[in-house]
Amino acid sequence: AQQLANELIAEAKTKNTYGEATAYIRKISQQAYGDITDPEDRAGMAVNDAICSLAVRRLHEEERSLPINKED
To answer: Which domain of life is it from (predicted)?
Structure first.
């Protein structure tokens, strides 16, 4: 899951801002839904949600660690 999250983050970072990257990951997450009554679809959705959540969390951690630009 970590490797897939890292790949997703790398793909999301092709966007211009962290906000756009986060929106991209959330869009990917929303596109992965299928038939909720099918156990395979349900398992795939759970894995996708976990990977996307991990990717968003890591992206936000990175964003929060950026220095503040102070203009004199």
So the answer is: Bacteria
∠ Cα 62 51 47 (to 5°): 165
- In a domain, residue 70? The reply is no
Cβ-proximal residues to 9 (8 Å cutoff; 6+ apart), any chain: 21, 25, 55, 58, 59
pLDDT tens digits, 24-60:
999 998 887 766 777 777 788 888 899 999 999 999 9
Residue 33 is part of which domain span? 2-64
Q: Is 67 left (phi over 0), alpha (psi -120 to 50) or beta?
A: beta
Q: Do 2 and 55 form a contact (C-beta atoms < 8 A)? A: no
